[in-house]
């Protein structure tokens, strides 16, 4: 399947299919005199003999978020310069969202910008590889350094999914589910039917297609996130805080963050538009472990909440909320309000799940 962006210029293709890497990569690499592969070391270890057998002299990155540090950024830049990268070279990022975020940021900044391609190997990266956000972390928070920088293409080879652990699969599915909530109740119901009790890997491509198309609707309108693109951050305010504080998988944290956002939306709308308990029970039935957030003190999350990139006013925390399915808005809440809802939200979860 091929999906294309719809900007005024410099559009790129997103391929999602089995064997996509073999099918499309050389068409792009052939245009450059030198190509540098930045590959998640774990992915390379698993796939070097078959899917990645043609990848020449990869630079291996530490797996997951651990590669998104300032140190790893500087080290990899040094290595690329030593290997002779030029302005007309190509960087190919092969790995999950973290690899893509780091490699994209390197591509955006090395020699003031070289072309790059995303080869996402996780379900989660259907999200991060699309839209041109690149980033690294600092101790105060996630993705606090970064840029918007479009790739030349995204090649999502779904054969990589076969080796994904269940926790990673669930993490990626969280963003697919978020995209459904940004569409309609029917889309969320469809996912819950398609992936009832467990994530069905054979039906993931169609769910990912829905996810990417939804995401592009927002990105095409507001690439640099001054307005509608912020809605893609549904679940991420509390999500990023839980991810860092409780050391959760990104998507697992986003699932909790989404439940909280739906709960707060109901409170502010003064009607139960969203059946939060139903979604919580569903998330639990497909593997979300609620014990991972039990007893998390609000005060431990607060320092992260106050550093959220969406915040614009001192001591107010910005949340993406919904007045209905697909109808988002950004609301600044005081610390007291966030805490109050956090307490009652936890009580509801303990009672209902
Ligand atoms: O692409 C976007 O815009 C998003 O917000 C998508 C998020 O799901 C994704 O996790 C993103 O990387 C988070 O970005 P951040 O700007 O909140 O760090």
Automatic annotation (TrEMBL):
Catalytic activity: 7-phospho-2-dehydro-3-deoxy-D-arabino-heptonate = 3-dehydroquinate + phosphate
GO terms of molecular function: 3-dehydroquinate synthase activity; metal ion binding; nucleotide binding
Cofactor(s) essential for the protein: Co(2+); NAD(+)
Predominant location: cytoplasm
Limits of the 3-dehydroquinate synthase C-terminal domain: 172-311
GO annotation, biological process: amino acid biosynthetic process; aromatic amino acid family biosynthetic process; chorismate biosynthetic process
Protein location: Cytoplasm
Residue intervals of the 3-dehydroquinate synthase N-terminal domain: 60-169
Involved pathway(s): Metabolic intermediate biosynthesis; chorismate biosynthesis; chorismate from D-erythrose 4-phosphate and phosphoenolpyruvate: step 2/7
One GO location term (cellular component): cytoplasm
EC number per UniProt: 4.2.3.4
PANTHER family: 3-DEHYDROQUINATE SYNTHASE (PTHR43622), 3-DEHYDROQUINATE SYNTHASE, CHLOROPLASTIC (PTHR43622:SF7)
Family, per entry: Belongs to the sugar phosphate cyclases superfamily. Dehydroquinate synthase family.
Protein name, UniProt field: 3-dehydroquinate synthase
Provenance organism: Aliicoccus persicus
The encoding gene: aroB
């Amino acid at each position: 399947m091929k999906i294309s962006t719809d900007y005024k210029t410099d559009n790129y293709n997103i391929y999602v299919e089995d064997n996509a890497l073999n099918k499309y990569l050389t068409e792009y690499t052939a245009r450059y005199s030198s190509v540098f592969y930045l590959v998640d070391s774990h992915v390379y270890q698993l796939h070097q003999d078959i899917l990645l057998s043609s990848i020449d002299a990869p630079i291996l990155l530490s797996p997951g978020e651990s590669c998104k540090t300032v140190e790893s950024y500087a080290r990899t830049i040094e290595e690329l310069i030593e290997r002779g990268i030029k302005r007309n070279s190509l960087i190919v990022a092969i790995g999950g969202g973290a690899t893509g975020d780091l490699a994209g940021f390197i591509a955006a900044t090395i020699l003031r910008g070289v072309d790059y391609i995303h080869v996402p190997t996780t379900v989660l990266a259907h999200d991060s590889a699309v839209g041109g956000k690149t980033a690294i972390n600092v101790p105060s928070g996630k993705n606090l350094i970064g840029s918007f920088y479009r790739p030349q293409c995204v090649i999502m080879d779904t054969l990589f999914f076969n080796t994904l652990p269940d926790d990673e699969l669930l993490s990626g599915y969280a963003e697919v589910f978020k995209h459904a909530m940004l569409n309609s109740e029917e889309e969320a119901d469809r996912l819950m039917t398609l992936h009832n009790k467990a994530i069905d890997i054979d039906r993931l491509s169609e769910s990912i297609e829905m996810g990417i198309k939804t995401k592009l609707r927002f990105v095409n309108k507001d690439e640099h996130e001054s307005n509608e693109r912020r809605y893609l951050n549904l679940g991420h305010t509390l999500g990023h805080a839980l991810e860092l504080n409780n050391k959760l998988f990104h998507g697992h944290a986003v699932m909790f963050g989404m439940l909280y956002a739906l709960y707060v939306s109901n409170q502010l709308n003064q009607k139960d538009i969203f059946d939060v308990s139903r979604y919580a029970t569903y998330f639990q039935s497909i593997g979300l472990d609620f014990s991972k957030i039990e007893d998390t003190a609000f005060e431990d999350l607060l320092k992260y909440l106050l550093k959220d990139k969406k915040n614009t006013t001192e001591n107010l925390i910005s949340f993406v909320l919904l007045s209905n399915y697909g109808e988002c808005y950004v609301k600044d809440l005081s610390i007291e309000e966030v805490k109050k809802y956090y307490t009652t939200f936890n009580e509801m979860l303990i009672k209902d799940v």
